[in-house]
Design a protein that fits this description.
This protein has six helices and three strands, in the order H-E-E-H-H-E-H-H-H. It is mainly alpha-helical. Strands 1-2-3 form a three-stranded antiparallel sheet. A hairpin with a 4-residue loop joins strand 1 and strand 2. Helix 2 runs antiparallel to helix 3, helix 3 packs across helix 5 and helix 5 crosses helix 6. It starts with a helix and ends with a helix.
Length: 108
């Protein structure tokens, strides 16, 4: 197996993680970030870190059936009508790829 095949195989083996947002009564499923997605989020963070967290939520938060939980059309509402602490918690879970217990311990 070539090195690139090993790289691809390793990434393919990564599992979705779940996080429950009790205040919203929902559980989201988060697939691992790709390098391209990470690059896009880093570019967004240069402008504004909170907006980057919202972008991560829109990009990666899925329902159990795999449907996206949010769309770009929801961005303004997430920025202006959502609890900033929950946005930081969920966005950090996605971007930092920490587990749910660590998020609750460090952000809630």
């Amino acid at each position: 197996m070539s090195d690139i095949d090993k790289v691809i195989s390793h990434f393919a083996d990564k599992k979705k993680r779940s996080v429950t947002i009790e205040e919203w009564g929902v559980t989201y499923y988060i697939s691992p970030l790709t390098v391209a997605e990470t690059r896009r989020l880093f570019q967004s963070a240069k402008k504004d870190e909170v907006t980057m967290l919202v972008d991560a939520i829109i990009m990666k938060a899925e329902k159990e059936n795999g449907d996206k939980a949010f769309s770009v059309a929801d961005k303004d509402k997430l920025l202006n009508q959502a609890d900033v602490d929950i946005i930081k918690t969920l966005g950090s879970f996605i971007v930092n790829e920490v587990n749910e217990d660590d998020v609750k311990k460090n952000f809630v």
